[in-house]
Design a protein that fits this description.
With 248 residues, the chain is of the alpha/beta class. The chain contains seven helices and eight strands. Bound molecules: zinc ion. The site of zinc ion has 8 residues, from helix 5.
């Protein structure tokens, strides 16, 4: 369950982000920021389970905000529509309250590595997930444990990276990992030292789950110079619940 006062920043409100948001709500999250740049597309509704036909064409972050508020009017939920490059991400993270937990739910490998590096720099905990075809993975990221770059070093070259749009995503794989990411976010919010670095994978075709605890990689540029830190006490400001302009 979500600790009192915890704030969750969800990057991407699509196949992973939609179930993650529902799971955050189910687990008692009261304070959320949702970021996406796209609109709801009818062809994705089967796995973007937060939306319905009435949302088709709407900005995804705003549609997600309204869907969550329909379920709980007392939620504090902000929506931003924006592209995330390195500097925009930095400004966005700067605007988050202390102890915020980031859920990276986009389909961009480059953004996953940017989030990994920026969160470690700012001592924010994050869950970085991804699904492709029938496989998925999610890693809990925090200072003092192995990070995404410890395991993979760099994003795959664009020429060989598999694209969701080209190879597809099994809906239940996205749903499973969206929920799992929310669970990892709660675990990080409660006691980050216990779960930091854990890498969970699941191949739904082979029904083969794995939990890995990779070691930090000597010389990892994202981890260098960052000492382990205790769980940060959440300190979310007064609730706003609004559609807000992207930070500049
Ligand atoms: Zn690392």
């Amino acid at each position: 369950m979500a600790p009192q006062g915890a704030h969750f920043l969800v990057l991407g409100a699509g196949g992973l982000g939609a179930p993650a948001l529902l799971a955050l709500l189910a687990g008692g999250a009261r304070s959320l920021t949702i970021v996406d740049r796209d609109r709801v597309d009818a062809t994705n509704l089967h796995r973007q389970v937060l939306y319905d036909l009435g949302d088709v064409g709407a900005l995804k972050s705003e549609a997600a905000r309204l869907q969550l508020l329909r379920r709980d009017r007392q939620l504090c939920v902000d929506a931003l529509t924006m592209d995330l490059d390195a500097s925009a991400l930095d400004r966005l993270l700067e605007a988050q309250p202390a102890g915020a937990i980031v859920l990276e739910c986009s389909d961009s490998p480059d953004l996953k590595f940017m989030v990994n590096d920026a969160c470690l720099r700012r001592d924010l905990a994050a869950v970085i997930g991804g699904v492709i075809r029938w496989r998925g993975q999610a890693q809990a990221i925090a200072r003092g444990a192995a990070c995404l770059r410890c395991v993979y070093e760099d994003p795959p070259p664009h020429a060989i990276a598999e694209q969701c749009a080209a190879v597809g995503v099994l809906g239940p794989a996205a749903g499973l990992f969206g929920h799992l990411m929310a669970h990892l976010a709660f675990a990080l919010a409660r006691a980050r030292g216990e779960i930091a670095g854990a890498l969970l994978t699941f191949d739904l075709l082979q029904m083969r789950p794995q939990e890995l605890r990779p070691r930090p990689r000597a010389g990892c540029p994202a981890c260098a110079g960052h000492d382990p830190s205790p769980t940060v006490t959440p300190s979310h400001p007064a609730c706003s619940s609004r559609t807000i302009p992207a930070p500049r």
